[in-house]
Structure formats: structure tokens, C-alpha cells
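SAMPLE LOG
Freezer: B-3
Tube label: C17
Construct: single chain, 135 aa
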Amino acid sequence: MSKFSIISERDQLIMTAINRYCWAQWSGKKDALKRACYYKTVGHRRRIFWTCELCGRTGLTREEVAVDHIEPRIPVTGFDDILSWIERTLCDAADLQVICVEPCHHEKTAKEAAQRAEARKAKKGKAKRKQGRKG
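STRUCTURE (predicted):
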């Protein structure tokens, strides 16, 4: 187990493999991308563009969009276990959204990380208060 993580080395390897191999080809991800795409003729070529499902921005290329989980893969309360993480990761297209990387995805990710940090801080403070009463 790593020094600062509650996740075992084995679970980290599983998570890495799922992110690299399974998530890249996941049918839910492909369905979400199909839902948000449209075709436009540019010059003499037909090109695919995407629309951000949060801000409504159009004309985005594949590099400018991210497939994001509506409900975070790691909840605000923290990491549960590897099986719940897999279920949240490999979910249906209805639980995914296609959003622009800048600014929507960065803002959403930062907000979720801040909520998790705040929950950890509150949990740590609660544990210290409980320990103080015992001593």
C-alpha cells in the first residue's frame, strides 16, 4: 500500500488498467459521444463536431471535449471500494455527459475536488474532537 493512499497497490493497478483499456472502448462513452455530435461540411469534407452539454458551446473538436461522469466516480465522502468505483466508471451513457475541457470540465473537477477536501477536513476535525473527549 502506498504511504499516503487508502487504496491498495492491487486496486491501483486495477484502476489503471480499467482507465487505459476498458474506459477507452466503453460503449457508454461511445454512446454519449454520439449523442452530442453533429456533422458539418467544411470545404469539401464532412467533419464531426461536438456540443458541450453544460454550456451549450458548439463547434468543438474531439480534443476540446471530455466525456464526464455526471455523478463523480469518487463520491464526496471519499473512496468506497474498488467494485463501486468500477460500477461508477463503466456506467450507462445516460450517466455521462460530453462537456468542453476548458472551462466546464476543469471547473467541475476543481469543484468536486474542493468538496472532497472539505469533507475530509470535516471528518478529520470530527475524529480529533472525538479523540479529545476520550483523553
